Amino acid sequence: MRPVLAIALFVSTWSTGAPAQSPQFVSKAAELVVLPVVVTDRHDHFVAGLPKNRFAIFDNSRPQDVSLFTAEDTPVTIGIVIDDSGSMAPKMRDVVSAALAFARSSNPEDELFAVAFNDTVQDNVGGATLAASDLTGLERALASLKPIGKTALYDGMITALDRLDRAVRPRRVLVLLSDGGDNASDAKLNEVLARARTSNAMIYTVGLFDQDDRDQNPGVLKSLAQTTGGKRYLPGSAQQLTEAYTQIAREIRSGYTIGYVPPDRDGAYHRVRVDVIGPDGRALTVRTRPGYYAAPPVTRP
Questions:
Q1: CA separation (Å) from 79 to 25, 39, 159, 301?
Q2: Cα–Cα distances in Å, from 210 out to 67, 91, 119, 146, 184?
């Protein structure tokens, strides 16, 4: 397992007074642990507009200074990962409809790509990375899917995570739709979870299955989401499926991005906690990545 920082970027891209723009990988001079953070109240409503001083970060229980903070709707690279096995054939029309609703609710400058899996993995579905505003291109890409065969979910997730490593946007998300079962992968679940922990991706999972589906495994979907600070949805109808995708898009746009300089370069896994206090003095509910792998110690000749 290769230890990495959550992300490396030049701090001044967000800390200057210049007009807001998408952060770029322009330097590794300042390495930050960057966390997407979702804040909700007790009614599960998004809480927006909080200032930096309401946030506290703890790395292995040690408080850290917030070096990066933004509440802006910054563009994201999003991988739409779809179970394209034979069991999904009756549901594909609803899947395409929900994915298009997701794109409509996303930042128009978000980058989207699709990965599908059945017996094998189809990377780069549609042949390109698309803008979220390109609904025609996305619909064409998803319409090319032909559900057939078994389910290589774990291989599909590894491929999608590898694809995110080449993404342009610093913020990165995967949205997986599947029944959670796997009967065709070379990879194992523990390998996917380990790979997810070394990525800075947040994974959302949408479980789509019939109650008598023998391959369903909602526990896998829960593990993938929780490991990365994402969320699992289990819609029971086509309408709820669309609502789930729309909710994910809104959450991505409503979150905060915070970062700090890692306290150690020890190659170890660091647990992260973010606390947020609301204007009324009450603690708010926070969801973010539970940890990261620090960069290894620097060795000099």
A1: 19, 23, 10, 40
A2: 46, 10, 21, 20, 20
Architecture of domain 77-254: 3-Layer(aba) Sandwich (3.40)
Kindly state the average pLDDT of the residues 87-96.
93
Structure tokens at 117: 């899996």
Per DSSP, the residues of 206-221 read EE---TT-TT--HHHH
SS (H, E, C) 160-201: HHHHHCCCCCCCEEEEEEECCCCCCCCCCHHHHHHHHHCCCC
pLDDT at 26: 27
Q: Which amino acid is at 233?
A: Y
Per-domain residue ranges of the chain: 7-71+257-293, 77-254
pLDDT score, position 28: 39
Q: Model-level pTM greater than 0.90? A: no
Closest by CA to 90, choosing from 210, 217, 232, 218, is: 210
- Average the pLDDT over 137-160 and give the result: 94
Angle at 186 between CA 267 and CA 155, to 5 degrees: 70
DSSP per residue, 279-298: TTSPBPEEE---EEEPPPPP
